[in-house]
């Protein structure tokens, strides 16, 4: 065209450079439109005969990109509110996972770190897939971690919604958001079919497979994937058309054997993210929880019509340090806020004398279930269904869902499908009730329906309810689903079995389940749920023996670990706080010297996490020996301001403290 004098030299140079970029192709055509029909015909002939790639961009790729944008807009453009999501626009930039993130339950991670990750760097969402400096390259594998309920899926929706509107990462031609829930429905897939089956409007996937169009593949929710990823035994596959096991497909994509040119973004809970070798991850980020202002805004949105109630709920949360730390997580804040709001709304001054505002985990979830059960009753016409029938229906639903929750928890399964529901005898029609809608979420994607509990802790509480009720009549070990085991009679034997299995579990996934199980033996929870799910005062037969057993788990030696601390949490849930109160009082009076027995050391380790006495300063002056100091090391890591003076320490203790200060998890800022 330049040779025919239909373009100036400057126009020809610009058109040649721009025509290699799909989004600029239309601009090239626009320049030529003013040059007459002869120019357009000449351009078409030239493209068809000499530049098949450009011809494909104009005739195939551009319409395909447009259809993809329209599809994502329909799915993700439902008006995400920007206010509560501001914290998601800045992620914490982290250097790999800490030991606690790799080994501990989500709740323990929050409790130990006080909800404050030890990170100073952050990265804006719009720069998540850009180089950090002029001399670096964009990350190929990015992993974003966050505990259950912190907003990982919401972050993905926010990113896709913002990208579709053209506000960020305009250099990315295709963003392909997938969930591991979707992938659970396939046994085998090829890279090509992975794209075409989920995005049927992408009729020519070669531009993605070959890297011709810059692509971001999002894999959301690794913790919900049914198969563990095994990177050490990956069967190498470089053929994008070859169908292989889905877990093998994922490992080949992450290793770069498939979709080599695509950027990959994986979201996950921290423990599941540890499956991916650190050497394969180019960038790791973490979602932060609520700050004080964000928590207030969140609760104001929850109680939009009653700001007074919102303020009272916030006051109760701030009055309980442990609860305030937990409420930095949106999912937990929603459950706690609902429970406390329900308590404040439904208790008269007289009834409050008999019940206290919920403080323990078990009390919060008991109120939440009571609220769900109440609303389930209210929607039944009284003349057609008596309250007793409503109670029985609710018990049946909770029993069925509880069994699903318990055996799902044992298998580390958090997403369920219609086949799972049928195998556990759950009537799908009952899932439409308001009770189920508060406990179980439903997601319909293409040819399948997925069900998952509204929060991990809801599954754990339901599992504990099922185990508690079943243990009273079971004659075999409930942890063996088939029922084939040595006879195990009596509630206490089943209770001991659950605690022992929790203590032995390497990945700590039963810790909160056992806390809830202990909480169901507390007088307050029995009072809340008696007549609904529990029998009045039935806990009295087992409570004292359960407490003795838990104390026996503590009084062994001076080895203090997260297991020890969780046992102390169990005693708190069962409302046996005497040991902790004695040690806390001694801390206040600076009279700990000589009283740190193994059991009191366990209480001290627990108090380092939860006590207001340790909030400003942790004072352990004049009370530690080498052995006690060594046993408490794993807990001292997270004390911001630590006083250890007048302990007559020798060089061996100083070496221990030196090793602590160099650990990645260490949050000590001031040491005396």
Describe the structure.
By secondary structure, this protein is an alpha/beta fold. The chain has five domains: 2-50, no CATH class; 65-287, Rossmann fold (3-Layer(aba) Sandwich); 292-347, no CATH class; 384-546, no CATH class; 576-671, no CATH class. Helices cover 51% and strands 9% of the residues. It is built from 32 helices and 15 strands. The strands form four sheets. The chain has a seven-stranded mixed β-sheet with strand order 2-1-9-3-8-6-4. Strands 10-12-11 form a three-stranded antiparallel β-sheet. The protein has a three-stranded parallel β-sheet with strand order 13-14-15. Strand 13, helix 31 (626-636) and strand 14 (641-643) form a beta-alpha-beta unit. Helix 14 (307-318) packs across helix 16 (330-346), helix 16 (330-346) packs across helix 18 and helix 23 (491-504) packs parallel to helix 26. The protein is globular, with a radius of gyration of 29 Å.
Q: What is the number of beta strands?
A: 15
SSE class: alpha/beta
Distance between the termini: 79 Å
Main sheet characteristics: 7 strands, mixed
Beta-strand level of the residues, as a percent range? 5-15%
Protein name: NLRC3 protein
Subcellular location: Cytoplasm
GO molecular function: ATP binding
Keywords: ATP-binding, Cytoplasm, Leucine-rich repeat, Nucleotide-binding, Repeat
Could you give a quick summary of the protein structure above?
This protein has 672 residues and is an alpha/beta fold. It is built from 32 helices and 15 strands. It has a seven-stranded mixed sheet with strand order 2-1-9-3-8-6-4. A three-stranded antiparallel sheet has the order 10-12-11.
